[in-house]
Specification:
Elements lengths: L3 H28 L1 H8 L7 H24 L13 H5 L14
Helix pairs in contact: 1-3
Length: 103
């Protein structure tokens, strides 16, 4: 079983790798901005290139940020994003109007 120290150590390494990849991506975008704009503006199937570029940046930066937080020892709580059991079991009175037929 991995200890917290092992997890932090691995996260630091991944943060450095994804950080370097992120810096490289930004450097490439600034260096090759004009050719990229020309390529992206061609239309047709080339319209997928800007979208895929954004997804690539999002993936790399997201992994970098996640690993930075883990390396710092900051983790989401185990109950984050979940409703409490009490809230799920609470029954509310049905106050909707109903149409009835009289025979």
């Amino acid at each position: 079983m991995k200890t917290a120290q092992d997890k932090k150590k691995k996260a630091k390494l991944h943060a450095l790798l994804f950080g370097a990849a992120s810096i490289s991506l930004y450097a490439a975008v600034f260096k090759f901005a004009d050719p990229m704009v020309e390529l992206y503006a061609k239309g047709g199937a080339y319209c997928l290139l800007p979208v895929s570029t954004v997804f690539l940046f999002s993936y790399v930066h997201g992994n970098f940020a996640s690993n930075v937080w883990t390396a710092l020892g900051i983790e989401a709580s185990s109950s984050a994003g979940r409703k409490s059991d009490k809230a799920e079991k609470t029954q509310r009175k049905d106050t909707r109007s109903r149409a009835t037929l009289k025979a």
